[in-house]
UniProtKB/TrEMBL annotation:
<keyword id="KW-1133">Transmembrane helix</keyword>
<keyword id="KW-0812">Transmembrane</keyword>
<feature type="transmembrane region" description="Helical">
    <location>
        <begin position="68"/>
        <end position="91"/>
    </location>
</feature>
<feature type="transmembrane region" description="Helical">
    <location>
        <begin position="20"/>
        <end position="41"/>
    </location>
</feature>
<protein>
    <recommendedName>
        <fullName>Preprotein translocase subunit SecA</fullName>
    </recommendedName>
</protein>
<feature type="transmembrane region" description="Helical">
    <location>
        <begin position="103"/>
        <end position="121"/>
    </location>
</feature>
<dbReference type="GO" id="GO:0016020">
    <property type="term" value="C:membrane"/>
</dbReference>
<dbReference type="InterPro" id="IPR027359">
    <property type="entry name" value="Volt_channel_dom_sf"/>
</dbReference>
<keyword id="KW-0472">Membrane</keyword>
Amino acid sequence: MPATRTTSPALERAHLVWDLLIIVLVIANLALLLFDSLFLLPPLNAAFEAVAPGLYGAYERNIHSNFLTIDLAFVAVFLLDVLLGWAVAIAERHYHRWFFYPFVHWYDVLGCIPLGGFRLLRILRVISLLHRLQRMGLIDVRRWYLCSVVAKYYDILLEELTDRIAIRMLDNVQQEIRAGDGLSAPVIERIVQPRKQALIREISQRLEAMAGDAYAHHRDDTLRYVRGLVGRTLSESPEIRRLGRLPLGSQVARGLEASFSDLACRLVDEALAGLQSSEFSSLVEHLAESGFDAWLRTDPHTEQITEQVLVDMLELLKEQIAVKGWQHKYD
């Protein structure tokens, strides 16, 4: 795409002066169109003649009778503006092709046609020029009261419209779910089953990571619990009690308790350290696959529960959408 040429400050000022002139002419032309349209209404025409007969006669002779000629003078200026804008767009390479300008500014081109419906398009010329001035930083229409009012009611209208469309769509989805032959089976067949191995792998990896992280953070507490459990078990054993009553039996009992505690802690430590092994990973994956297959089995009762859950979720979503956010925003 050709690069856009930079515009000099003097040329920018010339563009600005011309744009302001066009805005004034468009507003004057639109005001004249409005006044002349009202002038054609018999009640307003008679009232105008009764209130200001001299001004009425001057307007009818000098303006209303020559309205088409005056409008053509405005059209000539507007057409000149279109041609100048087209030439500037070509010179400054605003668009990818030289003939894009009249299509982009179609409202300017059609507004030059001196017919009733096309004259209204001249309003868009004012909006376009204001947008250009806004982009140049010369005005800030967002601070205008009229703009804030229009933006407010546009926001309200857009929110109400989108909310109604969304609620209607959710109603249709609920009806489809209720009238369908079951949603769980198609979901399992078309969505879950093609991703079964990936889901099983993800579940097994999460289980391994969870077990490994839990043991790493609570290793000391786990071993302390194992030692305490071994000690309580041995202290409650009748054989150990009888052994303690023998000469040197208490020392032997304490030695056995220490040995058993160390053995149990080592077994637990080795077992949990084996969580990182490929054998444990394979075991967890097989367990996850078995549980996954059991979870995928459905029956009519499961279908009914699934559909009801989906319908209730959609109903909750409809309630959230129905909340009129603009009331809180513009309170």
